[in-house]
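Example record for the data management plan.
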Amino acid sequence: MNKSTTKDMTTGSPMKLILGFAVPLLFGFLFQQFYSVVDTVIVGQFLGVKALAGVGSTGSLNFMIIGFCMGVCNGFAIPVAHKFGAKDFSGMRQFIANSIWLSAVFAVAMTAAVVLLCRNILTWMNTPADIFEYAYIYILIIFWGIPASYLYNLLSGIIRSMGDSKTPLMFLLLSSVLNIGLDLLCILTFHMGIAGAAAATVVSQLISGVLCLFYMKRKFDILEITKEEWKVNFDYMRILCGMGVPMGLQYSITAIGSVILQTSVNSLGSVAVAAVTAAGKVSMFFSCPFDAMGSTMATYGGQNVGAKKLDRLGKGLFSCSILGIGYALAAFAVLFFAGDVFTGLFVNEGGAKIIADARQMLVIMSAFYIPLAFVNIIRFMIQGMGFSAFAVLAGVCEMVARALAGVFLVPAFGFTGACFASPLAWILADAFLIPAYIHVRRKLGRIMGE
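Corresponding structural encoding:
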């Protein structure tokens, strides 16, 4: 085993471990969002507001499908983290092998289904006619890239489960630079329009996945899977699906509410859609630290449960919560005073209304970043502890909140109603997650005879 690239999170200061693991993850998420933001900036500046709105109108649909891929892969990594924490490396390799078989099946099935239904789904979402083709071309290419998404997310999740959060960062950095270059090349030189932006994203993620594969083969001798370990094991697959499918559904169920909300926002016209797109991209960028904290707590929780060190769970949760609250306050201050500067990056001349609306959404959302911090920290901790089903229920809470906002708040209050959809979702999810954590912690204590 290459100890220089793995990290044992079952010993040492929780705060120090969490910071050391989360910071590289944070840069990874930032770079991932960076090339997503660059996509949007280039589209908005060089292809116009309608193209920007077209990309934005697919955001919730993209999150529902690609988010499922990410959730499944994150879930598959949890049994790997458990086995790593327990030092059962043969069992760890068997879980990895079976997760590869499952990912291949999921990728093929999902790609076929969503590609065939893509146009129908956009029609059901009341996508405005003047941006429909932009939306269709963009999301269709993204969906063809689902296998690339599985490849990267599965392999990077496995690497992180062994405590190495730095390597995926390096590959994302490289692919981010490549994505920017491909964006400019495809749009400005080859004049591929919206298709160029989508293709650049897919190719960049594919390269990240391939690099993860090469790295794992060269650096981790404990990942040399034997012929016997490659065999399909339905017991292992059942455990993997028990972890992965609920986590995938967590994203998708949450996104159903976003789709309902997006359908309602679509009725406000392409200007409102463009404003939501710009605000959403900026907010996602500022939310990267929360994503990093969440992924960190999944690995932290998984390894410590595997090592049966339950006393460290609460200490880690407290340390990460302090970090989350501190960052949430700082992010709100920045977006309150400079929100219009960030949203102005996405539109060219004539976008004053879009910038003003986007800033309003950013200020309202960032005022509720503390509840968002707890959603990520507690939910991923629960998942790492092995109770993925609770994450699905939290996703149901978010879905209900966003759906209610789409059905009632937007028709009643217009764009302002849409601004409160995510804060409402985060608060409702926390109302479920906090008592859920207390419950699963006590349950684990009983199971392990604490």
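Summary line stored alongside the record: Residues 89-124 form the longest helix (36 residues).
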